[in-house]
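[step 3/7] fold_predict: job queued, chain A
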Amino acid sequence: MIRAALAGLLGASLAACASAPQTARFEWFAYSGADPVRESIAAGADQYLNPILQGFYPDPSITQAGADYYLVTSTFAYFPGIPVFHSRDLVNWTQIGNAIDRPGMLDFGNLGLSRGVFAPTIEHHDGVFYIANTCVDCGGNFIIRAENPAGPWSDPVWIPAVGGIDPSLFFDEDGAVYLMNNDGPPGAAQYDGHRAIWIRQIDPQTLQPISEPRVLIDGGVRFEEKPIWIEGPHIYKHGDYYYLSAAEGGTAEGHSQVILRARHPLGPYEAFAGNPILTQRHMDRARPHPITSVGHADFVQTPDGAWWVTFLGVRPYEGDYYNTGRETFLMPVRWVDGWPIITEGAEAVPYVHARPNLPPQAAPALPTQGDFSVREAFDAPLGPHWMRMRAQTAPWLSVDDGALRLEPRTISLGARGEPSFVARRQQHMNASAETVLHFAPRGQNEAGLAALQSDEFYVFLAVGAENDARVVRLRRRAGDGDPERGIVIASAPLPGEANAPVRLRISGRGPLYDFAYAVGDGDWITLARDVDGRMLSTRTAGGFVGAVFGLHAYAGRDQ
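[step 4/7] structure written:
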């Protein structure tokens, strides 16, 4: 009887071990990228490269505090959210934190990856930094504050009286504080995309409105042309005028920036006859190395009186296809007859330009521009550039003893949840991501390396099991019509010991991606070549994000 009881306990113990989740251990992660344009265009010692933030860094907003400049961008439903960058020369930027970095600040729930935090704006006033933002489908408009832009930032102060998106703040010289935003027009919409820019005064302490809202722009600068999506407003004081800058034309190829001015923040505003002051929508799409979709600009002034502007743009590899998302660019502003000009006529946004008249600083440890390669050994906590899909707590992730560990869970990449997934941006047209994985799968468990644009569009190079033997699989999900775990489009057995490490590599060349693996120190074996990567583009997948490379572990639901 004792022997039978012991046998029963042993059997129960083995069964429990068989059903326990397995840890996927990644020793390191390497990223390398290059762009075809760099073969013919390089920066000299007194020049800088565009974009200044490569990859999915859209909707940039910039502010100045003494000799320091700070910049933030959108992250939508990724967490941590709203990266905060610092620079002293406007060229070399170091990420110093994320403004949304604590559980409970925002709740992304099961939102689509292109919902969440849209277009943050950052301002500095009297020693305090402010970020105004919208959590789309997750609370509306809010403001957070910090004395140190690296954080911590306050919990959101919600502004329920203000609807729409794209709030921004203006601190006037007389102490008045104004909030602008994009919202519906004052009457019935006259056409699709008919929006308006509104303004109201807010209390500087409570951050709540203390005046009735007022329309600054209805529709756009030329209403008769039915301009769409006037948004991203900012007000600046220059000389005797208040300048209102806003994006117009939507965030795709028709994107532009327009400018108006008035003698008072509340208007009335006069539109510049030469609008738009920034666009590339009239340029030949077939030109070499195009930069398109430019707009959503924010101005800053340097100590020598020069004005500079950050804005978003994209770099297609063909037509309107790009996988790197909307990126952050920098250009000088020239003032002509009292109006700021960024581009005009056939002037193209440059890949290379003369640097601002600021003391150059060293390039950051984690590059943000040009061709580069980086390798992360996971011997320290993850840097602030790593992101998770919606997940604000991640007990399934740990970094210790020189490895990143992911616990497989029953949430797949396509489940619109919080999968065991951590990623960094693809920042080049030609890019590769590589890792080494220790993982002994069973059942439906899988772990590996993914290239992902959204829950509906991704490719996952995974180590799994089949008939108690390890295999490598390539899963692809190319839209809602595919199962949430995707469709296996290639697979191969993994030779060698069951606990041998496996190297995984994804290489992108514009629209084409290759997927390779190697066991231990063995040679690379290509599992799939020339896979159509246009599914990772905004043109195909939609939304506002860019492609990322990430590490993922999945536990089959029968485990």
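[step 5/7] annotate
Confidence is low (pLDDT under 50) at residues 1-20.
The chain has two domains: 21-30+372-554, 51-354.
exit 0
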